Amino acid sequence: MNVQVRGKNIDVTPSLEDHAHKKLSKIAKFFEDDTEIQVVLAVTREEHVAEMTVFFNSMILRSEESSGDMYSSIDSAIDKIEKQVIKHREKLNQRLRQGATRQISDQLAAEQLGVKEEGKEESEPKVVRTKQILLKPMDVEEAILQMNLLGHDFFVFNNAETDTVNVLYQRKDGNYGLIEPEL
User: Fold this and answer.
1) Is the distance from CB of 67 to CB of 73 less than 8 angstroms?
2) Pick the CATH number of 137-179 from 3.40.50.1970, 3.40.50.150, 1.10.110.30, 3.30.505.50
């Protein structure tokens, strides 16, 4: 694993960095050797914040935890990443098992005069609504205004400056984030 530890408003001591590396080694079994992990340690007025971002298999896992102690923030953030990995792995295994079961049941149903099983509910979340929107070219300030007028915490728009589709979202700290695609 390629681990990068940075600090914001804090000097990352060797003991903090060693603690992060030691705790990350417990979840190394879930990742390949070329997996990149970014750890950002920050100190605000009253809290110690540990942010972790894991890039693997074209997926991004992210956790952010804060407490009065940097070491416990690191521990909590790593525990959260571990739970996300386990949840993702369980979903993949469940899909693989369901796929094999469905294939067998489909074959049996075809053999038995094409009788299909209906009415089964799936426990996985599914898309229950699709919405089409008109992407009007606008600048970021206008998108913020539109998002606030609609009362949403995100807004999809066509950025007039870059002529690309962007996503604007409101962060937990009250500021805004902008997602721009790389082409």
Assistant:
1) yes
2) 3.30.505.50
CB-neighbour burial class of residue 140 (10 A; exposed 0-12, middle 13-18, buried 19+): middle
* Domain 2-89 classification at class level: alpha beta
**71 by DSSP, 3-state: which?**
helix
Residue type, 140: V
Put simply, whether the predicted model's pTM sits higher than 0.90 gets the answer no
Residues of the chain with CATH 3.30.160.100: 2-89
Instruction: State the residue for tokens 């060797």.
Output: 14
pLDDT in tens, 37-80: 899 999 988 899 999 988 877 677 888 999 999 999 999 999 99
**What is the spatial distance between Cα 106 and Cα 112, in angstroms, rounded to a whole number?**
10
Closest CA to 172 of 72, 71, 66, 82: 66
Measured distance CA(65)–CA(52) in Å, rounded: 9
